[in-house]
Each structure stands twice: as structure tokens, then as C-alpha cells.
From TrEMBL:
MF term (GO), any: NAD+ binding
PANTHER family named in the record: NAD-DEPENDENT PROTEIN DEACYLASE SIRTUIN-5, MITOCHONDRIAL-RELATED (PTHR11085:SF10)
NAD keyword on record: yes
InterPro entries documented for this protein: DHS-like_NAD/FAD-binding_dom, NAD-dep_sirtuin_deacylases, Ssirtuin_cat_dom
Residues where Zn(2+) binds: C139, C143, C174, C177
Name of the protein: Deacetylase sirtuin-type domain-containing protein
Keyword Isomerase: no
Origin species: Gracilibacillus ureilyticus
Organism domain of life: Bacteria
């Protein structure tokens, strides 16, 4: 281990130890680092009939594939939701993260939709899932603001999938308008922000208010540039505004932030699991 990395780990450890408040920002890179990968073997092993039939290349782009019928679309999505949300238990990296912060005052904001934080012990009321969750459906037109837990339906769809199609009677329809349903994910402007979403948002804002001027450590983990306005920019701004804040950034692709925060930022470009393990020892 080189000297800079050693120093960075020591400093991150100290910042977390001394922090009165910890805020974790979890992006897609965090789940990939935890093993929830959307391409490679995990994709080819689970989706071979779909790859053969539609030429799909990975789970990210497949989410946007224009399946010709709802029966085909839901055959794909049931599998996608199942492998990422229901089949998978808590991963080691998320479990480690929970051990790292569980004795502290903390809050999680995440763009991830796979429930890994909850599965690993983080209580619901401390996790704000901004972009939705695989485990729910919503009306595609957002004619109303309910979301519907989909585990039973998803399992049934998988059991009854034949030739990349589910039977028509399993295609979910909106109980109010009778139209198509979508997974509860922010894929367009019709994303449902229900009461629970607003409650979560409020809890997060309250937590942020309590941290003003306090010793705080921001753990920005695997946050890309798809939606920088949700985690990356606010974390940079709050770090800038608070003299007692430290921003601990885990980011391979975009490590450099605003220059004003240079002395308050610790950057890791290495494997997230390796660094978290090192911080914990
Ligand atoms: Zn509807």
C-alpha cells in the first residue's frame, strides 16, 4: 500500500470517528462494488434467452429496450427485478457499511433501487430512496399516487415465462385507469412520489438541518454523473459551507471535485470494499 493511500485511510478513519453526523450517499457504483453487477457473467447467466432473442447486452440498456409487447416487456422486467431485488440477500459491502456507522448518527440518501441498505440492517426511516425501488409498481401514466408491492406477481411471472413471454392475464394493469403499469423507478416524468417518498425526503432534510455547523462526514460512494444534482453537488456544497465537514469520495471515474473543497476532501479511486475493510480495521 502506498503512502498516500495509507494516509488517506487514516484520515478517513479519523474523520468518521470524530464525526457527530454521517451522511452516506450511495450511487450505482456502490452496488456494483458490492457484486450487484449489471453486465458480464451475472447478466449472461440470467438472461440468455433474452440475449438470444433481442440481442441485449447488459441490464442497464435492457431497461430501455422497446419490447414489442407488454407480455415480453414484463417477462424481461420480472427477471430483472427478481435477480436484483428478491433473489439477492444482503451483500458484504453493505453489511460492512452498516457496521461502520451503526453506532453513529447517520442518514442514507441513495439513487439505488435494490434495497441493499435495508437488507443490510439500515432502518427504513434512515434511508431516502430518491429514485424508487424495484419492489413496487406504479401506474405508467401516474393517474394516482399509489405504489404496489410486486414480489408475488414477479415470482409468478417468472414461473410462467415461456419463450420470453408471460401470459396475458399476468400483465399488470392500473387498478384505477386500467392502463399499463411501470416499475416504480424514475424513468420519466411520471415517477410517483407518494406519501412515503415525501416523508423520507422530509426526514432527510431534517437530518441535514441538525448537522449545520457540526462535525460531519459525507461518504459519497460510487456516485456517477447521471444525476449529480441528487448526491454529488449537494454534498460538495454542504462540505463547502461547513468548516467542520469532510467529504470522503469513492469514485474511480470522476474523482476531482470543486477546488474550494480540496483540503476537506479525501478521495479513493480503489475498490470500495477494500477501502471500507481497511477503514474498519
Ligand atoms: Zn392509472
Amino acid at each position: 500500500m502506498n503512502k498516500t493511500l495509507k494516509t488517506n485511510i487514516k484520515e478517513a478513519k479519523l474523520a468518521i470517528k470524530n464525526a457527530e453526523y454521517i451522511i452516506i450517499g450511495g450511487g450505482s457504483g456502490l452496488s456494483s462494488a458490492a457484486g450487484v453487477e449489471y453486465s458480464g457473467k451475472r447478466f449472461t447467466e440470467n438472461f440468455s434467452p433474452f440475449i438470444k432473442k433481442y440481442g441485449l447486452t447488459d441490464m442497464y440498456s435492457s431497461g430501455f429496450y422497446p419490447f414489442p409487447t407488454q407480455e415480453e416487456r414484463w417477462a424481461y422486467w420480472a427477471k430483472h427485478i427478481y435477480v436484483n431485488r428478491f433473489e439477492l440477500g444482503a451483500t458484504n459491502l453493505y453489511k460492512d457499511l452498516f457496521q461502520l456507522v451503526k453506532e453513529k448518527e447517520y442518514f442514507v440518501i441513495t439513487t439505488n433501487v435494490d434495497s441493499q441498505f435495508e437488507k443490510s440492517g439500515f432502518p427504513n426511516e434512515k434511508v431516502f430512496e430518491v429514485q424508487g425501488n424495484y419492489g413496487y409498481l406504479q401506474c405508467a401514466k401516474r393517474c394516482h399516487d399509489n405504489v404496489y408491492y410486486n414480489e408475488t406477481l414477479v415470482r409468478e411471472m417468472i414461473d410462467q415465462t415461456e419463450d420470453c413471454k408471460i401470459p396475458s392475464n399476468l400483465v399488470p394493469k392500473c387498478p384505477i385507469c386500467g392502463g399499463n403499469m411501470d416499475p416504480h423507478l424514475r424513468i420519466n416524468e411520471n415517477f410517483v412520489q407518494n406519501e412515503e417518498w415525501y416523508q423520507s425526503h422530509q426526514l432527510y432534510n431534517q437530518f441535514l438541518q441538525n448537522t449545520e455547523g457540526k462535525k460531519i462526514a459525507f461518504l459519497e460512494m460510487g456516485v456517477g454523473f447521471n444525476t449529480p444534482g441528487i448526491i454529488r453537488y449537494p454534498f460538495e456544497q454542504m462540505t463547502y459551507q461547513n468548516n467542520h465537514a469532510t467529504l470522503i469520495r469513492f469514485n474511480r471515474a470522476h474523482p476531482v471535485g470543486i477546488k474550494e473543497n480540496k483540503d476537506k476532501t479525501i478521495v479513493f479511486m480503489q475498490d470500495i470494499q477494500d477501502i471500507v475493510s481497511a477503514i474498519m480495521t
